[in-house]
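User: Sequence in, structure out. Go.
Assistant: Echoing your sequence, followed by the structure tokens.
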Amino acid sequence: MRKIILSVIGVLLIALSFFGAQKLIASKNKPKPVKEKIIKTVFTDTVKNTTVKIIIPATGSLVAKQRVELYAEVEGIFKPSRVLFKPGQTYKKGQTLISIDAQEHYASVQSAKSSLYSLVSSIMPDLRLDFPKVYQKWQNYLNGFDLNKTTPVLPEISSDTENYFITGRGIVTSYYNVKNLEQRLLKFKIPAPFTGILTEALVTEGSLVRNGQKLGAFIDPSVYEMEVALSENYASLLKVGEPVVLNSLDETETYKGFVSRVNGSIDATTQTITAYIDVADKTLKEGMYLEAQIDAKEEENAIEIDRNLLLENDEVFVVRDSILGTIPVKPVHFSETTVVLKNIPDGTVILQKNVPGAYAGMLVKPFKEVTSKKDAE
């Protein structure tokens, strides 16, 4: 019985080995699947060279072109006036912005004037006797001397002898001392240098103003200036008088300006050049942040494409008979998102959008939009 069982098992093992060998042989003879060639559909564009405007973008904040920081050159009490010294207050040219109490200094001026008048009066008898030819002009000077008016200019000295006599009596020294005090008296009132608006007020009426203290800021709101820093590559493109379009950050407002000045030197640290743009509009305010589009130049026989389409070795992909190839190009200007190229013949088919993993020799299929049912069929 045992021999019979062992024989049956051996027959089964032989049968299983035979069928296993048959399956292995059949699997080796089975043909391998052929991979289908994947042809990517790409967006293309046909080149047509035109004149491309090179526009340089820049941003900056507005500053009044005429702006004055107000500082005190004398000390005293800020006198109140009918026009309050407050931010937003407008003043006409010549109108008093700040008036400081000058009574003490005014008394000093009058005292110095009186001393000068006395000195000139004291030499008149000597002039009548020793210098009769110049006596009359000094008498006329005294006759025109008014303590309540600005001190008149001393008569012209016509000879060395007269000069020695007048100078030796201290008249010239006294005269310039008076003129110095009169000039300082003028600093107790600060007039508006132009018609404008007060943007900053750091003192109030009745407060003590000290010498050198900042009082406020005064601007002309009719013309503003925007300072922009541009790459040194644009230095040769910037021209004074070039029109500029400025936009608000939310792109709801547009303003027209022009390049008024271009700095003659390049910042050694940042390698940028500074340009100044003038813009005038009643709605503008100092401190507003704007974006400028500067028309630098016009490049003829060129095209503008996405920067991602330009390869590292200054080449772009072209499509020839459904196969990708490359051609060399000449970049002439880069912006943040685009590049201006030259040396691409008209009619050349290039990629319109970047294709991941693209390479020269790759099979592609240009995308064609379905425009009718007939095309769809």
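User: And one key feature?
Assistant: Helices lie at 2-28, 103-130, 132-143, 160-168, 171-186, 373-376.
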